[in-house]
Design brief:
The protein is globular, with a radius of gyration of 21 Å. It has seven helices and nine strands; from the N terminus they run βαββαββααββββααα. The protein starts with a strand and ends with a helix. A hairpin with a 2-residue loop joins strand 4 and strand 5. It has a five-stranded antiparallel sheet with strand order 1-4-5-3-2, with helices on both faces. It is of the alpha+beta class and 251 residues long.
Length: 251
């Protein structure tokens, strides 16, 4: 049974059918990579690269959420000096098992994208250690519960991955890649905007490793990272398929 909540319409928004088809395709794609839960999708109108709206969809989204969001949005708009801002809700609906909220696109995402792009250019520490600075166990979604081992060399990484991949007649050559910064949890909650300043707050899932580790984070983003990583520009890696296969063994 379908239910709708239309708060504000703007030109270019998807129709109900388009919204459902678009998000269903995204939901199925997430299930294929074993990710479930709330997702966000940046919607662009036809023939335009400019973001028009942010779509939140999930099995857990109900119409009570956008009703509350819309109520608070209108109260804040009446305040001449509001302490915070809330994204305006355009449309919300419930179709079968999924709920959808179409809201105003918040343009802080481009600032976060720029910040991440800069972080990806950082040189690795001179001590040659991998993972977090100073060495230690890697925190990355390649492994169960994001808990990886401690590596002393790229060759050690190659040996472990190739041992796992030998049954699938695949190999990786991470030793041939540049060592770069990776960020495996580029979620909005990990960045804080304070006036003109943007702060990166969480470095738990970061470190330095062969470039494919960042490729994997972009190709298989966490649900909360999807609105940002889809804008990240990063070179493709021939070793990505190997990491995708290996993660099934690690988890």
């Amino acid at each position: 049974m379908a239910t709708d909540m239309i708060v504000q319409t703007i030109p270019g928004l998807p129709s109900r059918d388009q919204l459902v088809k678009l998000c269903d395709a995204q939901f199925i794609e997430q299930l294929q990579i074993n990710q479930r839960g709330t997702s966000h999708y940046v919607y662009r109108s036809f023939n335009s690269s400019t973001p028009l709206a942010l779509i939140k969809f999930s099995e857990h989204v109900t119409l009570s959420e956008p009703r509350t969001q819309a109520y608070i949005f209108h109260l804040l708009r009446r305040d001449p000096s509001p302490p915070c801002k809330v994204a305006e809700v355009y449309v919300a609906c419930k179709e079968h098992s999924l709920g959808y909220i179409v809201m105003k696109y918040v343009p802080d995402i481009p600032r976060i994208v720029d910040a991440v792009q800069w972080l990806l250019t950082l040189p690795p520490p001179k001590d040659g250690k991998f993972g977090p600075v100073g060495g230690g166990a890697m925190r990355h979604s390649l492994w169960r519960d994001d808990r990886g081992p401690t590596y002393e060399s790229v060759e050690q990484i190659d040996i472990q991955f190739n041992n796992v991949l030998s049954f699938q007649q695949l190999t990786v050559n991470l030793s041939a890649e540049p060592i770069c910064f990776y960020h495996d949890d580029i979620s909005l909650r990990n960045f804080l905007v304070s006036g003109p300043d943007l702060y990166a707050l969480d470095f738990e899932h970061t470190g330095f490793a062969p470039a494919t580790f960042m490729n994997y984070a972009i190709a298989n983003p966490r649900r909360t990272s999807a609105p940002i990583v889809q804008h990240i520009v990063f070179s493709d890696s021939p070793n990505l398929q190997g990491l995708k296969r290996a993660t099934y063994y690690f988890k």
